Amino acid sequence: MKQITDYFPAFAVAPSAFRLRRGLRLLLLLLVLVLPAQAQQEDIPFYSIKDSAVIVAGRYTTTLARETNSIAVIPGEEITRLADHSALEALQWEVPSAFLAETRVGGFGVGTQGTGMITLRGMGGKPNTGVAVMVDGHPDFMGIFGHPLPDVYGMDDVERVDVLLGPASTVFGGHALGGVINIVSAPVRRNTLRASVEAGTWNTYSASAGISRALGDHGFRLALRHSSSDGHVPQSDFRSTRVQATWEWHMSDAWQLSLRGRYAPSQYDDPTRTSDPAGLGTYADIRRGMGQLRLENDLGSITGSTQAHFNTGHHEFFDGFVSDDRTVGVSTYQQWRASSTFSIAAGGEFLQYGGEANLDNVEHLMNTTGVYALAMYSPADIVHLRGGIRYQHHSLGFSSVAPTLGVSVTPLAGLRVYASMQSGFRHPTLRELYLFPPSNPDLTEEFSRGYEIGTEYVFARGSVRIAAFRNDVRDMIALVGNPSPPPPVRFRNAVDADQLGAEASLRYRLTSFLIGQASWSTLDPDGRTAFSPAQQFKYMLHALLGDVRVTLSGQYFEDLFAGDDSTLPMPDAHVLDMTVSWRSPWPVELYLKGRNILDRQYSILPGYAAPGAHVLAGVRYAMD
Prior knowledge:
Blueprint: H1 4-7, H2 18-38, E1 53-56, E2 60-63, E3 71-75, H3 76-82, H4 91-94, E4 98-101, E5 117-120, E6 132-135, E7 138-139, H5 150-153, E8 158-165, H6 169-172, E9 179-185, E10 192-200, E11 204-215, E12 218-229, E13 238-250, E14 255-269, E15 283-298, E16 302-317, E17 322-337, E18 342-357, E19 363-380, E20 383-394, E21 399-412, E22 415-426, H7 430-433, E23 446-459, E24 462-481, E25 489-511, E26 514-524, E27 535-545, E28 548-558, E29 560-561, E30 569-570, E31 573-583, E32 588-595, E33 603-605, E34 608-609, E35 614-623
Parallel strand pairs: 6-9
Antiparallel strand pairs: 1-2, 3-8, 4-5, 6-7, 8-9, 10-11, 10-35, 11-12, 12-13, 13-14, 14-15, 15-16, 16-17, 17-18, 18-19, 19-20, 20-21, 21-22, 22-23, 23-24, 24-25, 25-26, 26-27, 27-28, 28-31, 29-30, 31-32, 32-35, 33-34
């Protein structure tokens, strides 16, 4: 059995201890900064954890006091300041242990090195199939390869992004092996007119327009965005268009119906892909569409939603690979509040996904069905218990059970101390089962068990959160040597990992016009080192000077590898971004975004330089 000194050598007497000790010093610094605010006891009641309502990724509503694991909520205004083309970009600044392997300007693209390779606490994958990305509470992924589609989501009409850290399959099903990211769409039953134009380095351009109208009990919205960039290196150009339409009907105080659709074609070159000896480019033509029909109910003690959703796509690549995929699902999630101290959230879903590629010209379809129940009980005013379980059946014959247990204690209005055990699982993708030579139809599901203990303190001038966690991961699918070639390698359930880490974050109002934010995370990912830095330190400074707003955001990471088992080491890096905006007396805002303003030369992928210093300047018009 591993000892804590195996995970963190800094706890042993060793010369290499300085790295973790440096992180611990940063943690102590966070606590020291909070002390002045703690002395102002009259400030604490302004924000009460006990009274703060939280809608957890569209599945259930609770108070922050009853949450037994770490969560983060990123509001839409922050996304506008921190992101350039996708709401997922904001995670790398707002979530201490999140790492986003962004390799291009203008969009993420598709493929092993694309799709927004996200890791949360060392979980995710290449491409990301271990962190569930959801839209309004329903899972959204490419039917063949199983990864999310960030170029479809964009950053327009996003009210907020919810992030749940750690395994979360009890409530959210497959893909939630290491966490959940839920993109919440903004309501449309209001009268707004918005437009923007943006231009920047490397012939990067973006233009958008959107209109919302409230007509009695109905609301409509239509939005359009087009973006293009020549890219920061040769043959890395990107072109994309996104069309969104929404209709909402407020049927009564108890019922609301909404219909949303997106269509997002894109074309790009991707120099991170191989097999281009002639230098002709590795282009791709991607067309994605998605839609959802959602019925929300509020019947007093019973609230929830029932929805049907789909996404579909057509992909063509330079090497002749062509695929068509789809995902279709129906689900219902309900919550019964029996009393002020006891509630039950329960739900179920059916999901069918798959597609056809010209490798075998066979349509592969799989389906999975799951049900879950989650009970929340407060036996005392300061003690909150949680327990739940999910049963999932897959058409391949898999049956998974995912339990969760948690406790939260709130001795003060602004303080919660929590601990939890969580479960996650992921089914193999069609790519891993049937397509390409390394595929293996005998693969089984992956499992994870997460353990976390943490505390959060919220006061009038800010908040601080500290958490330690462990991920016990089993039967991870990986490419390993094939004892009976060909092919030389094959997918197998061959990897187990025991991951251990800690993170801390502080948000503090320094003055009436200045807010500081800092976070730190440390991680021993075991053998799952790809895109999971051992150390990360992030900071932000927001200044509001009249009509001028300035945001500085920085990220430092070290011990980054592009491969598992500490292979393909990448250099440590410190990246600093800046956004300056001016809100004029008219409904017009001018802004300037500087990215990597220190012009750091670094790489996330071997042989592929990350974008250097570049700027984006734009104007937004908003009539509300």
